[in-house]
Amino acid sequence: MRKAVAWILLAVFLLGWQPAFLGAAPAEEETEKNTAASTRTAGLKLNVKGAVLMDPQSGKILWEQNAHYRGYPASMTKLMTMVVTMDAVARGEASLDDPVETSERAESFGGAEVFLEQGETVPLEKMLIALAVASANDASVAVAEHIAGTEEAFVELMNAKVQELGLKNTHFTNCHGLHDPNHYTTPYDMALVARYALKYPKILEWTSIKRYTFRQDPLTILDTTNKMLYWYPGTDGFKTGYTEAAGLNLVSTVERDGLRLIAVVMGVETPQGHFTESMKLYNWAFRQWAWKKIYGPGEVVAEVATNKGQEEKLRVVAAGKVGAVVPRSKVKQDGLITTRLVLPRVINAPVVQGQKVGEIIILEEGREIGRTDLVAEKSIPRASLRQVIQRAIRAVFTVRQ
Fold first, then answer.
1. Which residue of 47, 64, 327, 388 is most buried, as measured by CB atoms within 10 A?
2. In 3D, which of 90, 125, 265 has the Cα closest to residue 209?
């Protein structure tokens, strides 16, 4: 009897022990998953339906809270309107000096507006400032019609850009953001639009304007809808959005001590909450992250030999800042951020100041996270025949010695 009890107890012990052992590995995996997820939300909770914080250089998500929440962008839409327009300007299909004539249809759009009248002609850049600063719906439609002929055709360009940027949860039905149930986006997708918009300094310039005189007669002064330009140092761009269905939205960018970040909040219900929640996010972010500078804009990176140039060597400089966003705890860590130069051994003269010569690749632990152009520090004309002969003679004597 005692033996039977002993065997039963041993069996119970083994059965109880084995499942606990087998369960240990999945429990550890789950812990790792939770840890990975919590790094994106740790220490911060926003009163929003969706939000995201992005490093624009690498596109890395530094923090998120329901980043793929699908909502209505409202007037954040106008950031894409500016992007599509600047693409057309970059392709040479339009100029910022173009006169834009207001149509009867454009005049009919109300809400936020600059009270354009049918037939009124305004330069394209001024129209873009109106939609950037005052979120003018009538100016948005006038710009769309100027670029594509009709607003419908312009919206096709917007959705083509959606595909090009790989935005999986975004669709536009208009160029201004007035409510339409099929007009939607997510914080993550809007951050990608903002990241692309940074390639055009003009968009940052327009969306950082606090007050602008649009018209002298009658006097029309526009005030920005983005209060963060006043309230939060380092803020220098992008757009607000609001409709009753969308709630309060904001896509913004802030740069401090070389560290530029993009934040998007959507579906905020408390007054001014799109500003206060964004500031809360940035405050948290600037405590966590820092900019590790490698080279500043215009800083000399290398020298390249010239072929038949009046000067034998060309200094190349960084066209923009070179570095990376890193955790503050790792700013002084060696080897975390490295670079690799892509440069020719020799460049043919003449060379023009600012001419692209190569690239510098930024690597984080060996993985590429960005590239910056390397350009000529100054112009180097082609050498005269006399200079070429003198160098040849000098080279011969140098070899003999």
1. 64
2. 125
- CB atoms closer than 10 angstroms to residue 396: 10
Beta bridge partners of 290: 326
Pair of tokens at residue 268: 């905020």
pLDDT digits 0-9 by tens, 278-324: 999 999 999 999 999 999 999 999 999 999 999 999 999 999 999 99
Residue pLDDT, tens place only, 115-148: 999 999 999 999 999 999 999 999 999 999 999 9
67, 103 contact by CB (below 8 A): no
Q: How far apart are CA 342 and CA 274, in angstroms?
A: 42
User: Prior bond to 218 cis, omega within 30?
Assistant: yes
Which residue numbers are catalytic? Answer: 75, 78, 135
Task: Please state the length of the chain.
Answer: 401
> What residues form DSSP beta bridges with 64?
52
